[in-house]
Structure formats: C-alpha cells, structure tokens
Amino acid sequence: MRVGVITFPGSLDDRDALRAITLAGGNAVALWHGDHDLKNVDAIVLPGGFSYGDYLRCGAIAAHSPIMSEVVDAANKGMPVFGICNGFQILVEAHLLAGGLIRNDHGTFIRRDQKLRVENVDTVWTNQYTVGQEIVIPLKNGEGGFIADETTLDRLEGDGLVAFRYVDVNPNGSLRDIAGLRNERGNVVGLMPHPEHAVEPGFGPDMPEAMSSGTDGLAMFQSLLTATVLS
Amino acid sequence: MPTVIVEVMPKEVLLDPAGKATARALQRFGDGAITDVRIGKRFEITVDGDVTPKLLEHIGEIAKDVLSNEVIEDVVSIRVAE
Question: Does ipTM exceed 0.95?
C-alpha cells in the first residue's frame, strides 16, 4: 500500500511520518507541495511542522498550495487523509475538518507526553484502538487550541466526530478537551499530538514502565493498513 | 497603482494572548488609562488598474476565504487607500 507524506516549506516531521508508515508495513512515498501529482498513493499524511512559517494563520497558506487541490478532491472521494499537528491545522483551513486552531490559552509553546482517550474507532485511522482506550502521544505545539461555536461543538459530539480527547491535563485550552477530529465519512482524521513520534521503543514518550518506550502511535498507521486490506 | 486595505481582527469572544501580553506591558506606561489591547492584521493589496466594483467583490471573496478564517476572525473593513 502506497502512503504519501506531503512536504511543505517548513514541514518538520515529514521524515518521521514516512518512517512510521514504513514501520507499520506501508510503502512510504514522499510528495511535494508544489506538484499537482499524488503519485498514485492510496492514502495521504499531512505532517507536522510550521508550513510557510505559520504566516497568515497556521496551515492557511499550505491549505491553498498546488497539491492541496488534488488532496481535497481525493479526500472528498474517500481517500484516507491524516493530518498531524500542522497537518490538522491544514485540514481545518482546507475545510476538510470543522472548527479552528488558535494560540494556546497560556500563550506559550508546550511539549509534553500527553495522555489521550480514543473516542471513536470507526475510522480508517483509529480502528486498531478500542473506544475509551487511553494512549500516550507526544504533543508539541504553540497553536493547538481547538475552537468552534457551540452549535458546531454540539454537532461534533452528537455525530461522534470527536476522535480523541485530552485526559488529565488540557494542554492548550482546547474546547471540550478535543485533541482530534474525524469527518463524517471516517476517511479524514486530524490530531494535534504526534503519533509518528510514538512508534518505536527507545524513541517514544516516557511511560510508567520505562523512559522513551511508548509506541501507542503505531496503531494509527496500522489502522490504515488494516482498513485498506479489509475494504 | 491603487491600494486596497483589508483589516482582519480576532473575534471578540476569543482570547487574544498577544493582545493581552501587550496590554499588560502598556499598562506599565502612563497613568493607567489603557485597559485593553487587541491585535489584528492589515493587508495592503496593490492592484493594477482601476478599483472597480467587480475587483472589490473579488477582494472581498479573498478576504473571506484566504485572508481570514471565519471560525476565529472577522473581516472588519475593506477600503481603497487615499
């Protein structure tokens, strides 16, 4: 299975995402923001970073970059698309997911090993988890505060579109502790923390058993491979 | 060449951390008259030729779709520079 990772100017975690896909058993394909070519991939990851220096708004310029017209088109036809951190911001700016992401309420950049609760497993990217499962995924952002108006929040909750929620600590002021969202179809998911940094023992988040041992993020990429094999 | 000015502000209901931090700094100056600061964006868009109603409509669409995100911001003015 071919899984593309798009590199934008200012992307940071594109290599980590490519590596996570490989570790999960996929065929990782590097894609370039300036192309109009998805290179026949079966799924797409929008990686973390600071595309276009976070100018205008986080993810806003990337959402209008050349390759995104193909990505939006493919996503609307059902192709799996996963946005991590800046990738989540890009998905929101491209209107593939609801709401907005603004500066953390405490005003500072934060990096921590963050506990999350999996709220929805009926997606291409979360089917290898169980509902209510708690996982630890590294978080690192300056503008991760999820917001939407009350009507939208109620709709997201009512339709089961909240995919992940922060547990114990709300690290950025996100409304209703929302850390990640899915779309109605379940092929598009966005998440503020970084699952691609929790895929290999020795390089993951600190866990009670051992430092740097967390690999809870791997199941997100394995979910994709499983969903595609089954479909 | 004419310039069209677009101004965008964070929505009233949203926390504006940059504005809050600036307000706290400004309160160290003067006699305490400054109570709040909100920080927005001003875009100066240079155009070729006359500013027609059609062009202003086009800039209005850009302002809504690209220069601002209606979830978090409002376009507060679009005008031609004097």
Answer: no
